[in-house]
Structure formats: structure tokens, C-alpha cells
Design a protein that fits this description.
Elements: E1 3-7, H1 11-23, E2 27-31, H2 34-43, E3 48-52, H3 60-69, E4 77-81, H4 86-95, E5 99-102, H5 107-119, E6 122-123, E7 133-134, H6 180-198, H7 203-210, H8 214-224
């Protein structure tokens, strides 16, 4: 797997991306500003960089230009931003960025973009407009792992006694005949929906129950497509 440097001034985004990439088997280094990114670029020698555009000291596009001018752009750099214009994205690509991700970043989009960037040649040392490219010692593209194709074992039943439908675990509906990443997403969706329902959608209690910091929790729910704003309408239930 690849060595990936994540550069972003928001701790919640750094932690979320780090967790996802670690789960995929990558080695991850984190930097919260351009100064730390420069140091990590020299010591960590990343195979790929996820670089935020808006940072407090030096913006990502300026850092990208700096690396290109110094001949240090020998790894794919994927730019990230929630506020960038089309012109900014085009400029970053012209300088040598491999791709651009708009925040909030979905899991599938993130992994697909990283896989594509790692699988193709990267710009080496000069802006893309100059046309200098060099093949990289390729880190393997991310491949979705598959789990064994076998049915979920049912709980033992006494003789021919029927199983009550309400006693069937939601986990039994997860198909094992799919990539591991998709099965994990299904499990996490069921897991968080369970705790949201149990805690009546109190994000404070769900955060304590699951051990996730609230910012991280909100991003995880958004990534999974779970509406955290829903509230259980207890008043509507009749006796």
C-alpha cells in the first residue's frame, strides 16, 4: 500500500481521512499547515499527497507551485477544498495537481480518486503545462477486498419453532457477497442508526456511546448518508 501525506488545517478532517486510509492499509502522515507539509515531504517521502487549498500560513496552490518549481512534485497531489472556484481547480491542475476533491468528500470518491492517481504517472518537478512526466515506482492501486461468499448462519432453533421476525438481527441482512468496503459501510450504517435510535438522536450521548468526537461523528454520519437532524416523534405514538 501507499504512504499518504494528508495536509489540512482542520483536525476533524485530518482524523477522518487518517482513519479511512489506515483502514485501507495505507501508511499516513498528517500535517496541519504548509510548514509541516514541507518537513513531511522531505522525511516521509509520500507516494501521494492530499493537500487542502485554504490554510493559514501558505495556501495549497502556492505550496504546489513551490514544489513544482523546486523539482519536488514527483508524487501525485490531490487538492481538496470546500470553497474553491473552478478557476482555482483548473490552475491547480495546470500546475501539476493530479485531481481535485470538493468537500465534503464521500468515501467512494476519495478512494477512487486516490486509486486512479496512484495508478498513473505523476508530474515530476515542473508544471503540467511544460509536459515533463516521469513514471513512478507505483504503489499498488487500492483494491476492494472481498469476503468469503457464504450465507450468514442463522441462530439455532428448537425443533421447528419459528423465529420471531422482530428477533432477527439487522446484521443478518448484510450480504457477504460484496466487497469488504461496502459491507463495512452497511455495518457502520446499522451501527450508528441503532445508537441514534437508542439515544433519541442526542449527538452528545451518541458521541459518548460510540467513542467518537462530535465533529468526527457528524462527518461519519454525513459520509454514510445518515440524517443526523431527525428526531423520533414520540408524541405521535398512540397507546
Amino acid at each position: 500500500m501507499a504512504r499518504i501525506l494528508v495536509v489540512d488545517d482542520e483536525i476533524g478532517i485530518r482524523e477522518l481521512l487518517s482513519e479511512i486510509l489506515y483502514d485501507e492499509g495505507h501508511t499516513v502522515e498528517l500535517a496541519e499547515n504548509a510548514a509541516q507539509a514541507r518537513a513531511a515531504r522531505q522525511t516521509f517521502r509520500p507516494d501521494l499527497v492530499l493537500l487542502d487549498i485554504w490554510m493559514p500560513d501558505t495556501d495549497g496552490v502556492s505550496l504546489l507551485k513551490e514544489w513544482a518549481a523546486q523539482g519536488l512534485l514527483d508524487m501525485p497531489v490531490i487538492m481538496m477544498s470546500g470553497h474553491a472556484t473552478v478557476d482555482t481547480a483548473v490552475e491547480a491542475t495546470r500546475i501539476g495537481a493530479a485531481d481535485f476533491l470538493e468537500k465534503p468528500i464521500t468515501l467512494q470518491k476519495l478512494l477512487k480518486t486516490i486509486s486512479t492517481a496512484l495508478a498513473r504517472p505523476a508530474v515530476s518537478g515542473a508544471p503540467a503545462s511544460m509536459g515533463h512526466e516521469a513514471p513512478r515506482g507505483a504503489a499498488r492501486p487500492v483494491q476492494a477486498s472481498s469476503v468469503a461468499q457464504q450465507p450468514v448462519a442463522a441462530a439455532p432453533v428448537e425443533d421447528n419453532e419459528p423465529v420471531a421476525e422482530e428477533n432477527v438481527s439487522p446484521l443478518s441482512v448484510i450480504s457477504l457477497d460484496q466487497p469488504l468496503r461496502e459491507a463495512r459501510d452497511e455495518f457502520e450504517r446499522i451501527y450508528f442508526e441503532y445508537h441514534l435510535g437508542r439515544e433519541n438522536h442526542s449527538m452528545t450521548r451518541v458521541s459518548e456511546r460510540t467513542g467518537l468526537e462530535r465533529t468526527h461523528l457528524y462527518r461519519k454520519l454525513k459520509q454514510l448518508g445518515i440524517d443526523a437532524s431527525r428526531r423520533r416523534n414520540l408524541a405521535s405514538s398512540s397507546n
